[in-house]
Amino acid sequence: MSTIIGHNYIGGQRSAAGTVIVKSVDASTGETLPHDFYQATLEEVDAAAKAAAAAYPAYRTLSAEHRALFLDAVADELDALGDEFVALVCRETALPAARIQGERGRTSGQMRLFAKVLRRGDFYGARIDRALPERKPLPRPDLRQYRIGLGPVAVFGASNFPLAFSTAGGDTASALAAGCPVVFKAHSGHMATAEWVADAILRAADKTAMPSGV
Questions:
Q1: Are 51 and 213 in contact (CB under 8 A)?
Q2: What are the DSSP calls for 115-128, one per residue?
Q3: I want to staple 143 with a disulfide (CB 3.0 to 4.6 A). Which of 57, 129, 138, 165 is the partner?
């Protein structure tokens, strides 16, 4: 069982510098759940962004295989989240257990899919869309698209997909696959869920020796 403490994650550490406390609620009854979550201060947001930026040079130079191992490890940790986790997500979202179990599989599957892309290696190629000088109303020049990471990525959790478009969702998976650290903003509707998943990601990061701040 994960211990929910409601602190922010910054550079591999926990931080609760703010004074604004927010609560998670039972989506079916409106009952307040027994967890305090500390809303991040502007300084904490800045520190999280700087930690991600500091991790970027080291993370982007890791081999594709190393990043794939990280994504696979995240998937394994997600799949290992048991019935207690599913019950918590159901309580925060009022979604049925079968839906949550399916979405958990989708979320871990997205991580494994991007791991396969990394191992396949074709993402290293560049694509050139040739100019269309006669196109109306405006011509199009050559477009060169290179599949490389460009720096840290900010991801905002969705309200209606507490797993697949949240902490470890597709946006996070694609950014991590591309070599980009992620700064994630949990949705206020399922903060306890987000913390459990964040802990799973951190366990995977520790197991695969990811740079702090990724």
A1: yes
A2: HHHHHH-GGGSEEE
A3: 129
DSSP 103-115: HHHHHHHHHHHHH
Given a cut of 80, whether residue 141 has pLDDT beyond it is no
| Three-point CA angle 182, 162, 56, nearest 5° | 5
In tens, the pLDDT along 65-107 reads 999 999 999 999 999 999 999 999 999 999 999 999 999 999 9
| 33 touches 26 (CB < 8 A) | yes
Tell me which residue has tokens 């700064």.
Answer: 183
Query: For the purposes of burial, counting CB atoms within 10 Å of the CB of 19, is it exposed (0-12), middle (13-18) or buried (19 or more)?
Result: exposed
Residue 70 CA from chain centroid, whole number: 13
CB neighbour burial string for 7-18, b if at least 16 within 10 angstroms, e if fewer = bbbbbeeebbeb
